[in-house]
Amino acid sequence: MCLIHFHLQDHPNYKLIVAANRDEFYDRPTEKAHYWPDAPFLLAGRDMLQQGTWLGITKEGRFAALTNIRDFSLEGKDKKSRGHIVHEFLSTTTSPNQFLEKIRNERDAYAGFNILVGDTSGLFHYNNADNTITEVPAGPHSLSNATLNTPWPKVVKGRTRLDDYLRQTDHVKTDDLFHILENEEEAPDSMLPNTGIGLELERKLSASFIKTPNYGTRSATVVLINREYDVVFSERTYKDGELTAEENFTFTLPISTK
């Protein structure tokens, strides 16, 4: 997952609004969003190479999403799959803050990552570069391959577009959020970060929706939780940059989680 825009407790009708893209190599085997047979309470796509996931939610309202950090100093051999962090949080009943304390103690076992975890009581952010656990305040936020709200062009553009849209509507349409995520405009060179990957690739990765010959946006996900605790989870999947499928799920969180 490489781009997550979200609104937290800042809309009259929604507690949480998430619009996120997962960017990955086209040949990495992946299952579309579904309730996992081995964890039927868990709704997410699945990386079939390592059996983890990049974003998911449970029927009890636990939510997690992950992005990689583009920092070569955090890479290394024999690192654990970062997708297991999302899976682990969604499979436990540990509080978000306690879970992140555990992950912080294990941070060197993983290459660079950002993780958002939360439930109906709040949302927390951690990455193993800054090594800081933060409760996310209400409002609009965006996360790519640096830390939370780092002003990369697609972070600023997407967060602004989402915020502007939500200020103008009481009822959020998933199609409108997917439209924001599908923006292929690249940033001008003067605005690009320098993350050590070269100018040409920085250009390609500066778009919200990425297309390269062997790597790009594989899926887009929208999650809505309204004030009545109704959940909408929609996922679009792509092959070589072209839309191939859309999955839609709805459920209401149980009274015990509200």
From TrEMBL:
Protein name: NRDE family protein
Pfam families: TANGO2
Domain of life according to the entry: Bacteria
